[in-house]
């Protein structure tokens, strides 16, 4: 099926020669049109994909589409793809892909955001361009987006080192959503002993104590392995989500992504779209690969991490443990074992993702600034950006996080969120 094409010549900038190349921009607005972009998407992913663009990969976004826009997605009317592709106007070569979506809200509000938000942790474009050529392509993409009759473009969690960051800083408004993304640089360690040596004496003593408690209570030394069989991975996903949701409820915490009724379907689709990571996968593999790790003792599964690897970066996406064993600090030991395994597998970065929570600081060596951006496209969009994103939402989050866990549990916000999604 032919996609709608906007035959617009990119505006020249001062740094471009007089005969600037002609660029064409097209937008895929339904799943069939997105599927027609697979070859161009894969090509850009292979030629221009960066290691911090795992959430912009074809596999990630197709999994989201299958869960939220497939035949079984009851509230799919809320979402619509809005994937922007810029091509060379002469030979059709794909140059830039911006995976976005449109979400409909009450009172006719329409917001364009990163495809799969809030599941995606970073926003960016995939492109082979740089410098003034990238600037021209993004200007054309934005000009085309402004014709979409939306109220607001909202982009959360854009890393300072994202390809699109300089453009957003110039053309968009910054929302009050600044944070940092913690990550561990694995390239600075020549051995596992050096990796372990980054901890101080007290931290190493604490890990030995966790191991001892597990041996005493469960009768065996804990071990870590990566699940390989698709059937085992699919069976584990429901258990992991259930344990994570129990832990969040106990803490009085909420998560739009984790309490969404489509989350399990999305993770199952991800297990189909991403092949499991194996030892023969190179560190620079342009295909994202699923990594579901489990820590066990005496054959009993104790804790898990759902992650994936892309171009040498390990994304630590969802962690969970058996709620009845929270007192054993299973997450600490699991992270320790998995970071060592990630180093052994030749990865360069272990990415703990946003936000920079206190418990992540022990496990990271660097922090990358992350910002939110928005661009109003209507009067309602200006009101939403200025009143909600810059004032009301930051105030509500501050109040929420200052509440003691007991009060948050009394509010039962997670139950309200589950009911809202089940109603859809």
Describe what this molecule looks like in 3D.
This protein has two domains: 5-171, Aminopeptidase (3-Layer(aba) Sandwich); 183-368, Aminopeptidase (3-Layer(aba) Sandwich). It is 38% helix and 24% strand. It contains 13 helices and 16 strands. It has helices spanning 31-35, 38-48, 58-68, 131-145, 165-171, 192-196, 201-218, 230-251, 263-273, 330-344, 379-402, 405-411, 413-423; strands at 5-6, 23-28, 79-81, 83-88, 94-98, 100-104, 110-114, 126-127, 152-159, 173-185, 223-226, 289-297, 300-310, 313-321, 349-351, 366-376. The strands form two sheets. The chain has an eleven-stranded mixed β-sheet, sandwiched between helices. Strand 14, helix 10 and strand 15 form a beta-alpha-beta unit. The longest helix has 24 residues, at 379-402. Residues 1-18 and 418-424 have low confidence and may be disordered.
